[in-house]
Design brief:
The complex is a heterodimer of chains A (324) and B (326).
Chain A (H helix, E strand, L loop, with lengths): L10 H19 L33 H36 L4 H13 L4 H12 L4 E3 L2 E3 L1 H29 L2 H9 L3 H37 L11 H9 L7 H27 L42 E2 L2
Antiparallel strand pairs in A: 1-2
Chain B lengths: L4 E11 L13 E12 L4 E5 L6 H8 L7 E6 L2 E3 L5 H6 E4 L13 H11 L6 H14 L16 H14 L4 E5 L7 H18 L2 E6 L2 H7 L2 E6 L2 E7 H4 L6 H8 L13 H7 L26 H5 L5 E3 L2 E3 L6
Parallel strand pairs in B: 3-8, 3-9, 6-7, 7-8
Antiparallel strand pairs in B: 1-2, 1-4, 4-5, 9-10, 10-12, 11-12
Helix pairs in contact in B: 3-5, 4-5, 5-6, 9-10
Classes of the chains: A mainly alpha (324), B alpha/beta (326).
Chain lengths: 324, 326
Amino acid sequence: MRPRPRLPRLGVAGWIGLACVVLYLLVATVGRLHGDPVALVTPGPEAPSFAHPFGTDHLGRDLLARTAEGAWTSLWICVTSIGFAVAVGMPLGVLAGYRHGGRLDGVLMRSVETLQALPQFVFVMFLIGLMGTADMHFGPVTVGNGPRVAFAIGLGFVPYFARVARGATVVEMREDYVTNLRGLGVPTREILFREVLVNVWPPVLGQALLAMAIAVFAEGGLSFLGLGVAPPQATLGNLIADAGGQIIGGDWWYATLPGTVLVLGILGFNLLGETAGAGRPRAVGTGPVRRRAPEQTPEEIPEETPRQIPAQIPTQIPTPKETQ
Amino acid sequence: MSALLSVDGLTRRFALPGSFGRRRAEPRIVPAAEDVSFAVAAGEVLAVVGESGSGKTTVARLLAGLDTATSGTVTVAGRVLSGDRTPADQRLVQLVTQNPRAAFNRRRTLRHALHQPLRVHGLGADRAERDELVLAMVERVGLSADHLDRLPGEVSGGELARLVLARALLVRPRVLVLDEPTASLDASVKATVVNLLLRLRTELDLAIVVITHEIDIARRLADRAAVMYLGRIVESGPAERVLSNPRHPYPRMLLASVPVPDPQRTGRASAAALGAGIVGEVPSVTAPPPGCAYHPRCPFATEVCAGHRPPIESLGEVDVACHHPR
């Protein structure tokens, strides 16, 4: 057997990103053990001390517990929303990429692009506006605002994943190994989902980490505006919103410490996503090198493969039409 | 000797997609293969040679069922194969593509790659039996089990070329189509692959079609040869005749263009010395010249060549499509 486990080649930025993400996750998990996020533990705001490392807020609640609670809420909302976006966007993209240039490709991609007509954050606010922020009741099931925020953010991300998956699929479908598998009689289903998909995953994963950063940011922004998860449940966004009025009073820790955790999350996922998306190690000399600028943000992801100009040589025409 | 593979009047025309604003214009048609017919017996090797754009690869894809012919038939062991084949029919003809580096999925192990065709076609009852079949085949092409647990990127080009062959042979095909099998290999590996092919042909009783533009490889491998020009076969027959003393001016020019490794001979390519005059470029494939497609480049062309397409005629051992065979 070949030696399989080796340290991932992350680079400086990647390791910094990983450290940030680990810190963020530590706050979101271990920090939650610190205490009750809604219990009133001091008579008023207190600066960080040994008993309350992040200080307490204007009502006397422990800020470490609240920040941990907030980080945890943000985390699950982001993971759910990105999971939803990948689960919906990736199959659409793979399907569109498989039918590259066909009618289905056009219909799928144009309808997905309709979602992108509005800036993403505005689109999410529009969705929340439609759904409202009060709890929804479906018979015995009560849906709080958290899942709906996750859904709204997730829907806003579907186009990105559909595009990335489509681009990667189009590239893969042109590779020789697909021709070989078809020649061997391997069914299309198996080629798509067992062979092509393993090569579509890595760019989608890189994209997912980048999107995580934006989702943390979006959730924070929504809660800051009062459109996200409502108090008393803490999120990083509504903590910072509450803190806004207190800065003038000299309570520096109130906004700074939850803010730092938010920055850790955004920065960490972003750096990690950059690393995963850029320095893709490929087996030597197989197929075309994916052209992808390392400093790409999700807002400016181009279609990975532009339509090819029909070549003069007949065997290279992408979708030959038959003539009699 | 009855033919294992016979191809009759195989034709494939591609329509070029019209550009925007020219939708209504006459669609441009590329006749990639026109009326291609040949037969290959079991244990026989046919070399198809020609320049780029002569339709060699199109013929290979049609044989392997990766494309549907506009007209004409492919018959293997008495079964007429269409473009849309059942899994059992798909097995009969196996295509080996040009670049062994790209022929395997770079993220799946070679073991997976070799097991897959067996599993798909239900060959070998269980995993253990498939393992044995794979191992036997890998050893047959001169490799060992160590190669199986690697990724394609971790194996050398020559080994990959043999593994591609092994994968194709695992489904027990009757016909093997090799598209430029040696084009991307270096000289020593080329020799290994050629010798392997010669051995396999007798061991497995395969009909082999080798698509190539390397005349020396074709000479070494083939029993019979067919020369294609702009989608048509212009001359076919025993390899030693066609690849050394052809009757059609096009293969004559082609052979004369092969550099001779003789340090005493310097100066211009012998094609010019042959009197073939302008070696020239292949004409546009969308508008092949009328009459004999070769006449604009042919030093022996006359009026009749421009007006009438020469039929394929039998001249002794070889079949030639030319008004003025040499």
